[in-house]
Amino acid sequence: MVVKGEKPDGGGRSRGGRPPQTAQQHEVARARILTATRAVFAEHGYYGVTVSRILKHLGMSRATFYRYFRNADEAVCTVIEAAGDASLVALHASVGEVEGSIAKVLAGIEAHLRWSSEQADIAQSLEAGIHDPQNPVSRMRERVHAEITELLVTEANATGRGNPDPLTLNVYITTMEHTSYHMRRTTSGDEAAENNARTIMIKCALALLGTPEDWKLLEADPATLGLAE
Q1: Which value, in Å, is the radius of gyration of the alpha carbons in the chain?
Q2: For residue 51, is it within any domain?
């Protein structure tokens, strides 16, 4: 995709100057560009990311930028995909540490809340792109949702809970997403707001994915599932 106001892929690439001397220097320079790109994405959203705006954060020449990325679109897509990867890494790590279907769901909620906190600076720009097919956020979201769905189906089948209804899974995952985005958008992400979001997510998990036994556990000891009485 060619971002408005940018040169086509490869068209702006410059060979001037000397490239970094080591792989480490290369990675440091590339990371600096991505940090600046993330800041522009946070402030202006996907369609507002341009090389000029990225360079304002860097103090770097345009020629140097094009040694690392073909255009601003490639840089911002890298930032967006990295956010999606971070979500899945956190999810797999948390879910892998516990046993039991509901325990894994709760661990997944905690992982999502941590990820949401880490992405707070770009939360609004991510949310703005989730329903826009032309926005790479939408593609990243589809990939993440597909992997979460696969995890939920695998766990449900492995524990004899049956094959979950696809619409139910979609509603559950979308609810988790909406709750965290709403929290980041409307509050400063303080402890009270995060606890409220956690409670809502757990209740939705029980309502959509829970069994009668799960509800009995909640009734007997709400704190077991992270809920206050």
Answers
A1: 21
A2: yes
